[in-house]
Write a structure and sequence with these properties.
The structure holds 2 protein chains of 2 kinds. By secondary structure, chain A is mostly helical. Chain A has 17 helices and 4 strands. The chains are: A mainly alpha, B alpha/beta.
């Protein structure tokens, strides 16, 4: 144990002094969230404000129908109406982004409405995410118009509006705020934590295995009176620690990032901060620990196998995709933690984390996730130690 | 003392290597060391001489327990390296010319690291470190990062790293390869110092000058087999050519036929 600790301490000092390890382990996870949250929230908030406050440019062709609607539009300060343009021109102006919407009434609109028939209005717009707010604003105007017409029609018929309301659905969402939040960001957070775990462990693993092999220092280390498994465990400890630290630092970065955005409503802020409670963090890290051991064993195995630092990098970089895919599947709605998904590494952590955030995790499932991760971690250590003790790997001829 | 008996090391060739080596190695195997025997005595320097690829490094790596012999035996002061590799390593110091050091550690940290791995007593370590640092004039840069040291300084650190635990057997694998004259001289002095201290010294080289400077006993290895084994003095007496180089080449040619 003493020798494992000696190796662990030396490898830790060596890794901490490496600028590249520090960048991937500390700087990126610490700064990514504040930058991501800070910049993206500011951009989103300012874009939404702009879309809400901007003057809507609406093209209109009423064929002298719906006079009241036209006048109300012309009277609004937040709408600029370009009147009497034909359908073709209206569509062209939409395509050129000169108009936000073009409203085309059918020629006998008033007559049809008067005859108690349906009057047709065609609404032209460009449906893109950034124009969503403008589209909603135009639809609100049309909905108001429809409500007025309906109301006057019911008045004419001496009917009460409630006559068409055959059922009244009273929606009561019993999902807790945490569950609702987990639906929105629950998949995204574990995805990031898993990626950081992998990234944080990746560089030290390459350096402590392939790097040491390439430098020739491994040869001298192997001539010291230390068992190969002890050497492996010393290195292993550092790789696992850097992976876990990286994920923990990313959580800290997220906390800092969220605190700096003042526009987040207090209710939402409290919900997000509840994820970062001590108990939740301990539970998350306890899930990430066996996963990081699994990652560390794979990374070290591949690094020991590689002839050089560069070769290790080129072997391990594509591994990132192998990690991202199951983590990404965990982001998809409808994918739940089941006895089968609990056995798939990475995906199981992603889904279990989602459950922890939502406070809906079933203890039995969580135990299955832990057990499967422990088995994978143990197996990967066995494989790694086999690779490390093979002289053909260490002195690849 | 090192006793090497009927030592063999066979490597399996990869598919690519089989293609490169051609029909010579149809069985897909290469005998890097093929049944060699020799003994290195304490207080004497044993030189393993041979051209590149002769099997020198493989032999020394087996002595240093880095590679397992395919067959045969190696004993270090009576310890069988196969049965007790960790005990054998306690007695060993190993230095190669190509070995680098941990650039992000200081000489102090590096030497302490190896001393800890050898379970050295703290006071004994401090005494020995101070002696060696003084001997090699290293105190000035003992706290600098190794990455910032010159080649000569690094080589001094390597030397201290090799002998900090006062090993009884020291293995030098082409220790002066790529080094300048002054740095090589440090190594030569170290090898001599080890001999004076009664250590068993084995070193490999392909530089004839080093052989004449240091050897008490020598063996010439070629294609994994020994072409000559004996004392350096006997070698000189039996020479059929005018110079060491020419005699060496003659023996290699004879060995091939």
């Amino acid at each position: 144990m003493k020798k494992i600790m000696t190796i662990f301490k030396k490898e830790l000092i060596d890794s901490i002094r490496d600028r590249r390890t520090l960048i991937t382990m500390v700087v990126v996870p610490l700064l990514l969230f504040p930058i991501l949250i800070g910049i993206s929230s500011k951009i989103m908030i300012s874009q939404a404000r702009k879309a809400r406050e901007k003057t809507l440019r609406i093209g209109l062709m009423t064929y002298n129908n719906a006079r009241e609607f036209r006048e109300s539009l012309l009277g609004r300060e937040d709408v600029a109406v370009i009147d009497h343009i034909d359908a073709e021109l209206g569509q062209q102006l939409i395509k050129k982004d000169s108009l936000d919407a073009f409203i085309l009434f059918e020629k006998d609109f008033d007559k049809r409405v008067g005859d108690m028939l349906t009057g047709r209005i065609t609404l032209y717009f460009k449906a893109t995410e950034e124009r969503e707010i403008e589209k909603r604003r135009v639809l609100t105007l049309l909905n108001d118009f429809e409500r007025e017409l309906r109301s006057s029609r019911f008045d004419k018929l001496n009917l009460d509006l409630s006559i068409i309301e055959t059922i009244d659905v009273d929606e009561q969402n019993l999902a807790t705020p945490k569950e609702r939040l987990a639906e929105v960001i629950g998949g995204f957070l574990p995805y990031l934590f898993i990626i950081f775990c992998f990234m944080g462990a990746m560089y030290p693993a390459i350096d402590l295995a392939a790097g040491e092999k390439e430098r020739g220092t491994l040869e001298t280390l192997l001539t010291s009176p230390v068992g190969r498994f002890q050497i492996l465990l010393g290195k292993f400890g550092v790789v696992v620690l850097t992976g876990i630290l990286s994920a923990a630092i990313s959580m800290l970065g997220m906390y800092v990032g969220i605190r700096q955005v003042k526009e987040i409503p207090p209710e939402l802020l409290n919900m997000i901060l509840s994820i970062l409670e001590f108990d939740s963090i301990i539970l998350l890290i306890s899930l990430l620990l066996p996963l990081t051991i699994f990652f560390a064993a794979i990374l070290l195995s591949l690094s020991f196998f590689a002839k050089s630092f560069k070769e290790a990098q080129s072997i391990i970089s594509p591994m990132m995709i192998v990690v991202i895919i199951p983590a990404f599947i965990g982001l998809m709605p409808g994918i739940r933690l089941t006895p089968t998904t609990a056995l798939i590494p990475v995906l199981n952590v992603s889904l279990a984390t989602k459950g922890i955030i939502a406070d809906t995790i079933v203890p039995g499932m969580l135990i299955e996730v832990y057990l499967s991760l422990i088995v994978y971690a143990a197996l990967s250590i066995v494989v790694c130690s086999k690779i490390f003790t093979r002289e053909g790997t260490i002195f690849r001829f | 003392m090192i006793i090497v008996k009927d030592l063999w090391k066979t490597f399996k060739l990869s598919r690519q290597q089989k293609k490169e080596k051609g029909t010579k190695h149809r069985d897909g195997k290469i005998h890097a060391v093929a049944g060699i025997n020799f003994t290195c005595q304490p207080g004497r320097i044993f030189t393993l001489l041979g051209p590149n690829g002769a099997g020198k490094t493989t032999t020394l790596r087996m002595i240093a327990t880095l590679l397992k012999p395919t067959s045969g035996s190696i004993s270090l002061d009576g310890i069988d390296i196969r049965k007790q590799p960790q005990d054998a390593r306690r007695k060993l110091g190993f230095l190669t010319g190509t070995t680098k050091l941990y650039d992000r550690l200081t000489p102090n940290e590096l030497v302490k690291y190896y001393a800890d791995l050898h379970d050295m007593d703290r006071n004994l370590f401090k005494k020995r470190r101070d002696e060696l640092f003084a001997l090699l004039d290293m105190h000035e840069f003992a706290g600098w990062r190794i990455g910032k040291l010159s080649t000569g300084m690094r080589q001094k650190v390597s030397i201290v790293r090799t002998i900090i635990h006062d090993p009884e057997i020291v293995v030098f694998d082409e220790p002066t390869v790529g080094l300048d004259v002054i740095t090589s001289k440090n190594i030569i002095e170290l090898i001599r110092k080890c001999k004076q201290e009664g250590k068993t010294v084995i070193f490999s080289t392909h530089i004839m000058g080093e052989v004449s400077l240091l050897s008490d006993d020598m063996a010439i290895i070629h294609n994994g087999k020994l072409c000559y084994k004996g004392t350096y003095r006997d070698f000189q007496n039996q020479m059929q050519r005018d110079s060491l180089e020419e005699e060496f080449i003659r023996l290699l040619r004879e060995g091939q036929t």
